[in-house]
Amino acid sequence: MSDVKKVVLAYSGGLDTSVILKWLQETYNCEVVAFAADLGLGEELVGVREKALKTGASTVYIEDLQEEFTRDYIFPMFRANAVYEGTYLLGTSIARPLIAKRQIEIAAKEGADAVAHGATGKGNDQVRFELSFLALNPGIKIIAPWRDPKWDLVSRTKMIDYAEKHGIPVPVTAEKPYSSDRNLLHISFEGGILEDPWSEPDEDMFVMSVSPEKAPDTPTYIEIDFKEGDPVAIDGQELSPAKLLARLNELGGANGIGRVDLVENRYVGMKSRGVYETPGGTILLAARRAVESLTLDREVMRFKDEMMPKYASLVYNGYWFAPEREILQTAIDETQKTVTGTVRMKLYKGNCIVVGRKSPNSLYREDMATFEEDSVYHQADAEGFIRLNALRLRVQAGNRGGSHGS
To answer: Are 42 and 159 part of one and the same domain?
Structure first.
């Protein structure tokens, strides 16, 4: 690594990446290009360009990637109904491959020979970033300061001292007793006071949602239109992918929807406790499954449900650009060609309840499903179906000493 000439750093403007920017220059005597991806950070990126330049960046890229993020990453993942370990909607996981992809593209444009990130050696993000880097440019050099033997800034106090020594502005606000990461899909909270899985999070921690107790006493009804697996409109108003998700975040957050408190298994081997807010994604998942319930064949739904845990693990573990994820995506997207329709949702005090669904591609037949008299389903046919499916059970019972019957 001693011959690194130019590095593209994933930069947020916070204490960690600001210190890393200067540390890279000092340690490797190299040029540093700062890249900040706006995936829904909004005001958090105000002043980032100026700070990066003052800290020593030769060039600063700040790019609004919200539409690409939603259209090409979130929506494909949601077509798979991906949920990690039954609860986590993968808000942080799905953001990393896009940031990494853009870093590699900027590195090519700038003639950089290295990329860097601020992820620690204990977390999943180091894996997600670096697997993506190497999938897109196998020859790129990767600098991960937290794993670098030259890195000795192992406490917040040391980092603040380093920042003050080099004239890097240090926020005067009180330190949050946890770490957080935000994008258009969610916000996550980890570490600090949350490391005790018995401790309930403080209410003032939450950003995107009110508590269910403080949500309105009157439910909110909305209708979401889907076309070939993706949402395209809310209450009849067509919206771009990012604007649609932002609107669902507003509606869900106002009704206390999308809070999750879980202990998950990190890819690196340890368990960690995380608290997440994913209001729009929670609504979207419930609505998608509702329109799929009308439009997907039973065995296709079963196939999708069997593939979902594998797909979710691939995203969580950082294999977005791996061939197996792309193969799964191709199969999943094929199932979505008929997933067109409208779902009516009731949002109320932390709950998103499906109360109606319709589709021009519906496989639901009221004349077959009715409990009233019908002329299209012969109930006597069920007897042979049951006896054939029970055959192996009857044989097994006979081997245990029961009667085979006839």
So the answer is: yes
